[in-house]
Design goal:
about 20% strand, 7-stranded antiparallel sheet, D-amino Acid Aminotransferase, Chain A, domain 1, single chain, OB fold (Dihydrolipoamide Acetyltransferase, E2P), binds adenosine-5'-triphosphate, alpha+beta
Amino acid sequence: MLYSELTAVYERLENTSKRLEKTFILAKLFEHAKDEDLHELVYLASGSVFPDYEEKEIGVSSQIIIKAISTSFGVSTGEVEKKWKSIGDLGKVAEQVATIKKQKTLFSMHLTIKKVFENIKKIAEMTGKGAIEKKIALISELLTAAKPLEARYIVRTVLEDMRVGVGSGVMRDAIIWAFFGKQLGIKYDEKNKSVEIHDREKYKQYANAAQQAFDRSNDFAVVIKAAKKSFKHLGDIELEPGIPVKVMLALKVKNLKEGFETVGKPCAIETKYDGFRMMINKTEDGKIKIFTRRLDEVTAQFPEVVEYVKKHVKGKSFILDSEAVGYDPKKFRYRPFQEISQRIKRKYEIQRMMHELPVEVNVFDILYFDGKNLISTPFKERRKILNKIVTESKWKLKLAKQLITADEKDAEKFYHEALKEGEEGIMMKNLTAPYKPGARVGYMLKLKPELNEFDLAIVGAEYGTGKRKGWLSSFILACQDKGKLLEIGKVGTGIKEKEEEGLSFIELTKLLKPLIIREEGKIVHVKPEIIVTITYQEIQKSPTYASGFALRFPRMSRLRPDRSIKDIAFLEEIRKEYSMQGRKRK
Ligand code: ATP
């Protein structure tokens, strides 16, 4: 397929904010694509060259792009920067420069999606000496061959800043429309931008199957290839130890009564440990692989966990769900999450970190065991398997503390004891429920003392003045709504001046600088990759921010390297908290 066919689609997607229209545009693209193009097409359509589960980033900064545009079109970097300042989007800068230059000298070749995909993938995988020059050469090779519109999207793909608004929900629906549209009687009215679906029940069933297929594989290329074959193939997508699965999430409850009403009696009550989620896989050939809940592989960072699993868990292959908690190796006391979070991203001095900040693994679920997928097996049975295969060892690997009860008094006692021991709270779990990867469905609930906090993404920042000159010192925050990021305020408190005192301006500046995609005077816009927990006193309505809300007295409490953009607070949650707040005041 020619890349120009795809860029025409990008442009149409960019020009509409309507979800149905986006779904229709993509569905048409998928429907008519040849089998041999599907792989590259699916990744490029969602603005990437990797499946969701691979932690890899393309990793190209704005500065590299500026150099590549300059080399490709023979304009100075100063000129490119000047245009960038006025247009604010390097993709459009490349398009504009290409338009001017191409009229005179260069001619475009026919770029294919395979060629674009191949070059960008090479760019992402390139490291070591001379990598920057090679990256610039690979981008330039594409840009010199590109038509102006193609130049726009090559630059944006490389920068991972597509702006076409295709989230995983739209991808999933587009796959259904493309391959089962006729069968389900889906009729899209292009004029009124509305849809008619003949068999809604069946449509829901198909959308659920596609979602499940995605939650299991985390790879739309796998989903689309199965869907193209048949509906049955979609259902046959299996878990595979070694390929990360999305974790099941918990709903929040206000008290034990509400908890019992949701999960039924009796239920399992477990300690809610304050650590981070670890999905521990043992592959069919005996390798241990560890993933975070954002599907990043962290095996190398936790060699001790690999050893514990080999020693304390029986079985040829499995996928375990667990919470790793840090502890002080001298005093044998648990540590709060923020003190061990640095281990997740740490790439060097791993042995030292392991001794200074060791973790204990608390296993609470199992999704796969010795060739058998267990996600449809009731929780109670899954736990029985865990009881059989885990040999517990304190400070290394154990099972989550559990009480099965129908008695509210016993539950209350368990909850208070957990809090007394310094734990975050408890989890309440439905004994007969399956495991639903990626879903927040009320099969497990969390109960903890009320705290005003949200996880939000940093989408921009402002350089400071005076003592804070040269550092980013005020951070623009965003929540999510239907695949879009909406700003909800700024935060500058809770952050330290000195690096050794904790989360500092210096650390945040270092983290954010490589993510800058645009600068406007003192303000920078960044790729939304840094997630932080923000505490606040109150939510207010605000016309200033796109979310319609602002947080009063926001304070940055911690970095969340274990979270991705998909984990940040939804506008709906904020709206709900806002209305509850009103009720409390009255
Ligand atoms: P929170 O910020 O309240 O921890 P969350 O956004 O991390 O919530 P939720 O799924 O909403 O994630 O809450 C459950 C989290 O609690 C799990 O993701 C897991 O990391 C952690 N956890 C600790 N102990 C347990 C346990 N026994 N069973 C399940 N999850 C547990």
